[in-house]
Amino acid sequence: VQLVESGGGLVQTGESLTLSCTASEFVFDGHAMIWVRQAPGKAREGVAGIGSDDSPHVATFMKGGVTDSSDNAKNTAFLEIHNVKPEDTAVYYCAVDKQMYGFSWYLGAWTYWGQGTQVTVSS
Question: Distance (Å, rounded) from C-alpha 28 to C-alpha 40?
């Protein structure tokens, strides 16, 4: 399984940003996936994800600020971040697991990770 994130870059506060996660040898349909970010000097934290039962999950600190979706035909998942703030500056990763039932915020439970894409929000 290979995951490639894209869509990061420099954005202004208040703008929206869409990140993509394209998978090879893996289909998102029926499997769990998660978006994780790591800000400078901080630990990785889960942002949002979709469970194996298609249930949506959004971290409390991102409520109302993200839209998580996937396009099975393109084998790509998307994370749209609305109204970005400087504190959203981080490297954003996607991760998936073939065996997970449901969803987990425990990052150690996720098997496959992408290389990450940098998002920098200027004030």
Answer: 29
